[in-house]
Structure formats: C-alpha cells, structure tokens
Amino acid sequence: MKISIIGSGYVGLVTGTCFAELGNSVTLVDVVKDKIDKINSGIAHIYEEKIDSMLKNNVGHGRLKATTHLEKAVLDTHITFIAVGTPSRKDGSIDLVYIKSVSEEIGKALRKKDEYHTVVVKSTVVPGTTEDVVLPLLEKHSGKKAGKDFGVAMNPEFLREGKAVNDFMNPDRIVIGSIDEKSHGRVEALYREFKCNVLKTNPRTAEMIKYASNAFLATKISFINEIGNLCKKLDINSYEVADGMGFDDRIERKFLNSGTGYGGSCFPKDVKAIIAKGKEKGLKMELLDAAENVNRDQPLRITDMLREKMPVIRGKTVAVLGLAFKPGTDDIRESPSLVVVSELLESGANVRAYDPQASENFSKEFPDAEYMSSAEAAIEGADACLLLTEWDEFRNLTDDDFKKMSRPIVIEGRTILNPKNVSKIVGVCW
Q1: pTM of the prediction?
Q2: Distances (CA, A) of 342 to 204, 310, 312, 426
Q3: Catalytic amino acids?
Q4: pLDDT tens per residue across span 97-114
C-alpha cells in the first residue's frame, strides 16, 4: 500500500520505517528540511535500537522517502497518517495547533483527489479530537463527506522509546477506531501480518485507550515510588517487595521499580492532558493528580539523600551518570536528571555528567555542567556519584572504579549496580 505520514518525529519515523519494512511504499512529510535530508540519506535523526540499519535499508531499496511537499504526498498515496506533535499548554491541556494545521492541508489536498483516501490520526490526542476537530476540518477544506468520499480513523501507537521498533513489529494489540467499515478495513489491512488482538472501536474510544494505558502505568510507577520511599525509612528493600508483588498475575512485576520517577514525551504529558480534560468536564481526577504530584517530587529525593550524606554541596564535585529519561534513547524530555542537575548547580556543585547517548541534548539545557566521555572519567576524583538512568554499561562498574573517588558516596536513583562487583563499603545507599 502507498502510505504518507505527516510528521517525521519519533512516532512518524518509527512508524514509517516499519511500514516500509513490511513492504509498503512510504512517504514521510515534515517541514524541517534537515530531517528530510537526513532521512533521504538513510540517517536517523533520533537514537533508537535497530532504526539506523532498517531506515538505511528501506531508503536504499526505494520503499521510503521524505519530502516537504504534503499535498503531493497525499495525492500520491492511499492512506495518510497524522503523526505531528501535541505539545502541552501551561494548564496541562494539549495544544492542537499542529493537528489543525495539518488537517486543513490534508483537506485541501483531498479536494484535488478523485479516489477514496483514508486519513488516520496517529498522534496522541484527547478523546473527541478525531471526530470533533480533525473530521470537520477535513470536510470543510476538501468540500467532501467523511465516510463517503474519504475515510477517517484513529490508530494509537503503543511504542516504548528504546524498544519502539520491536514494539511495532511485535505488537501486543492493535486498536483501530474508525467512523465506517471501509476506513477500518483499510487500516486493518496494513497490520494483516501481525498475530495479535485487534480491537475494532470508534475514534474517541481508541483515543481514550491510549490515555488510560499511559495514565495507569504512570500511576503504577508513582505507587511503587511511594512504597519505596517508605521502605527506605523502614530499611526494607523495595525491589524485593516489588518481586513479591509481581508474582501476583493481577499486578505483574513490570513498572514496579522504585526510583527517581517517570519522564519522557508520553507519561508526563498524557497524565496532565487527561487531568485537564477531566477538569474541563467538571471532574476531579484525584488519583491522577496524586500520581503526578508524587512524580514531581520524586527526583528531589535523590538530592535530599545526597545532603544527608554530604551536608555541604557547594564546591563539591558530583558525578551524574545517566541523563536520558530511560536507557535506549537520547530523549531527555521530562527526564528526572533535569531536576537533579538543576538542583545541584543551583546549590553550587560542580557537575560532571555522562550518558552514552544523551549528553549532547542535555548540554543544550545545562552548558555549565562538564560532560565526560565515560562513566569512569566522571567518577574519578568526584565527591559523590548519582546514578540516574539504568544503562547496561553502568552495571559493569566495580569497587575499583568507585575507590578512585575523593569519597565513596554513591546513590542509585535506580537499582543498577551489580552487587557482585560493588561492595557495601563503597557506600551504595539506595
């Protein structure tokens, strides 16, 4: 099938590359020429497992290309996915400026097209957006009727950063919210090779499934962080507690690692958006409000623990290992490390930072920190070390590495270090 995808950010690039891998002809559309040039050269503008080789292969075989020309992309394809950003406003609600703009442009292109075309919203949007915003704009600017002259559907993504390609190619479920049978059938045909549950529903339900899923996982993380905070006061290993909870198949072990809290482009934004939507409808989203509050305060637990071990931070050198919000990505959006490093710098500490992928992005936010080429270089001579992202390479650190510090104060924001390599004497205190 010939597919156009408007927006070549994280979701658009991964979705387009994977659809091309399945044998489709894909055109990615973006307004940023630098992104377009990189994609057409087979170079990914994000760090994501497997994306580099897959992108290069599909560009090389002519199954994937990128352009700035939206109208031509729509006219030359059978189905168009909207994958543009939905940034947060100050009140937490999502800003639909890009969704509206793209819907208008697609509508204008459809006016010039005789054959049936399907428009699919892939962006994460609050319930009602596809039917109440996108569809009317498409009809207005195309002069055509949805469900008759063109199709409309909502197909949420469930991609984990760092594992997005694997999640796309091995989905646990596919959700298609469509306005008619023809729209559903065309979207479902794209996923015919996958053996998983396919839920057929309406657009607003599909939109809510995405938000409800992310809000639940975010709440699960905040729950275990509250339990973990109490466990530290009671000298209890919160990870063992989580193991015991995880044996219950109603609970499961995933997303029960206590630490510095959740970050990234999805959970924080989506929780705020669904809270804002609830308030718009006159509902107090008390549980989600609490989950967000716990997560907001959680990174500062690390600096509080540091002050307990080292009351005077000013003038001290603190190594910060891990800047991305999670391993496997260079994404620093809403990363707990942003909060921690900001607090350290404001307190007068000298920050030495290291991350396998995210240092360049992080340095744009905090140019005053010193960025090191390895974890070992960051640690050597430091007064304290904070481990904030669970990159696998940090598991290889040993007593010998930490003994090169000025003083052995090591705090894990996640349980990372291998106890076989690091003794209690070094001062691990999470």
Answers
A1: 0.93
A2: 39, 18, 16, 26
A3: 266
A4: 999 999 999 999 999 999
